[in-house]
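User: Teach me something about this protein's shape.
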Amino acid sequence: MAVISVALAGRSYDVVIEEGLMAQLAKRAAPFLKSYGTTRSVPFVADTNTHRLYAAGIDTNLAAHGLAATWFVVDPGEDAKTWSVLESLCDWLLGLGITRRDHVFALGGGVVGDLVGFACAILKRGCGFVQLPTTLLAQVDSSVGGKTAINTRAGKNLIGAFHQPSLVLIDPLVLATLPDRQMRAGYAEVLKYGLLGDAAFFGWLETNGNKVVGRDPAALGHAIATSIAMKARIVAEDERETEDRRALLNLGHTFGHALEAETGFSQSLLHGEAVALGMVLAARYSARRGEISVADAERAAQAIAAASLPASLAALGLACDGAALVEHMRHDKKAESTTLLFLLLRSLGEAYVARDVDLADIAAFLDGELTA
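Assistant: First, the predicted structure itself:
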């Protein structure tokens, strides 16, 4: 078992990583179940897939401790992060009589965590929630740090709040049911931690990445714990991303979000896949600026391709040009009043925030990548 503390003034919480946690939920989350007593049901939010896989076991586990669960089930995918679903969820929670002392349980990937976290941020000006991430991407990234949001027509995650969970319980065993494509998409975020700030970890992943994606227990446990420990340190230093420190976690995301927008936030390009290709583009653009060597940029691309993740923009077959992708970037939530932020590399293992990027040069660079 690994316990990693996210140290925030007055709002610190633990991330617990242990095989079999899901089967011990009532015991492990006991302090956050007390307010319901034996007369009120505990609210869980899940998508149809996680509900099908885990609801019966959770119901049985809670019942053994004199508790009962009640479920709000959403469709899988980004379509659940909408105003209408948020409204329905808030109405449902209010109908249950949720108070500020209560905790809502988010069972699923990043979509469910984002939706529940935002609902809890605004419900009665803030109630608690517990993250039960069931995808690798959520386990190593989105379940920790307090970023919550929904999507709008203007873009992804543009309406949201910083609202930290009270507890994160990570059970690597649940990844056995995760489709291989989703596992690879989550692995992109693991690679991100190596590229942005830990050259030794990146080197370890070059050797052991297939074991992580293949769900080898020791390799997977090490990858999850290392990723979470790095994110916990960064979040503790810059919780609300007002400095450049937390912005480093967006490596690959400026390019990646533009690709997601161009593909309609659809299943044709998963978030982790977009981030993977975004990191390739960030590395290659860093080489274009002379900040890393072409060889290092291609080393990063090879590590991503080795996990069967997208490493070629041309291979996506997008019917657009570089200027269209830059236009998507202008709507990114990380954009400042006169500047678009790019996360680039000084070396493999050292990312930085660039505010001096010429968008016309980005468009020209992307034109080349689209036809390479």
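Now, about its shape. The CA atoms of residues 120 and 126 lie 6 Å apart. The chain has two domains: 2-177, 180-371. If you'd like, I can walk through any region in more detail.
User: That's plenty for now, thanks!
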